[in-house]
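#random but structural
TW: two for the price of one
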Amino acid sequence: MGGMPAPRPTTVPLLTAPTAAGKSALALELARESGLEIVSADAFTVYRGLDIGTAKPTPAEREAVPHHLLDVADVSENYDVARYVQEAEAAIAGVLERGRVPLVVGGTTFYLAALLRGLPLTPPADPGVRAAVEAELAQRGLDALLADIAATDPAEAARMERNPRRVVRATEVYRRTGQYPGSFGNRPPRFQYAVTAFTRPGPELEARMAARVGAMFAAGWAGEAAWLASQLDPETLPRPTVWQALGYREAWAVSTGQLGEAEATARVVLASRQYAKRQLTAMRSQLGAQVLTPQDAAKQVREHLSAAYKLSVN
């Protein structure tokens, strides 16, 4: 027995924050000082070719710190939460098997909640019923389908976060089974997580959003959106998953001359504020997180790394 290795800690550190709050920068700082590997939890950095508008880590940052779950799908694929959980858990296991420590980082709370709770045991999709619901979405609109869900289960409607693909899926499952996806339970998660969430004061966060959107347009975001439109028609309903990425429709409108850059920036910042509000609500309700300041969040992660993994931190 004396020769057996000590069991690895089962609690994986997880860092989340609203868009533009600086979670990637803090994650890089923590990873560099403690030798961590980052496992991304972002629904859109998984796509190859979406670099500017998703604020994907730069090649230099990825050279300095190993990153997982970036550039794992083509934009024509519908990358979903089931695939994310499977690939994220495999990545986490691989990091631990190499004797390293993973840090899960991202703002897609739907993915993070699935990591924490385990994947839903929802029945597979029925293409025929789904097609009928998609046609209804195109005819009646998102708000009408959401109202249908809210009439029978307001909590389920809120959980949709106005995501058309989730609304279609929930409606399809309900019409087949009389239950929404959240009613089917979950398989046990493979790992346990120590969740750390943070944000910044509203005016500071909005200023960071505006600065980031401006920098994205300066870096060529409109051209990236035009490339995406050349791969997938943005007017298709329901829209391909990638067109749900924040700001790409506005950036595409700039590329076609339908919007000026200033107006597009204002619209994206407004959408970012609304998205950040939904993220914060989900962090508290779905992840059970206390939302800290950036400084307290850094301290909390460092203390966890020291206690759970005996990592020395600065």
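TW: number two ↓
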Amino acid sequence: MQQFLSALACKLVLSGRVSRSSIPDSPEVESERRQIFFATAINLPTFFVRRDSGNALLLDLVSRATGVRGSHRYPGNLRVHVQEYRKALLDFIESEGRDVIELFGAQELLRDLRARITDPELGAGGKLTRRILKHVGASTPLTLRAQDFNMGAEDVYRGELRTAHLAEALDYLLEDCQTVRDFGCLPARFCRTGLPALLGGRDIMEFAREARSELKRTGELGGCRPVLIQLLLLIIGMHGENARISRPAA
């Protein structure tokens, strides 16, 4: 999604659809833009935009949303529903970025995003809540005391969710380890001497698979954690060096 939106932004700028004057670099415009994220984060249903806002792009998006009206509480401001703004923003992305969507094959990505917007239960918050309720054996959050729900959430975050994220990270690490073994992307001298010493003589793929098996069996990384951290730093360095080499000269 981030790559897709960056590509769409480049298209809008290069085509002249959006310019620097569309989003002025001023404290007022910056605060106005940020309040949408703040309102969403604390589950406020609406936010406010000045009628004479210097943010022309934001006013364009707001004009596409339904249910927008003048604010009685804050004269000179428009009252915008967060949910309707989200839908308008997605409509804007789909209408302005048809070619980019096709290029990225992002149709399914945007369908999933629309489903999450339409039904919040499909979003991250809904998924986490269902996971917590399943863990504590309850049907809805309101049937639980706040303390019981919070304790259940802590169990999920520190237990199964943490383990799942570590397992996913190890899967990505395995791909990088395969690259190191097949192509020797770390410095040659280190691959001959330093890497075997770090891994206790084990093959890099063997070590990574053992770490993944240990996590699956016990839910922990055990004694391999310090070596994993060092290996991860080496691989991050490898990616950084590869990016430097492949970067075109100025």
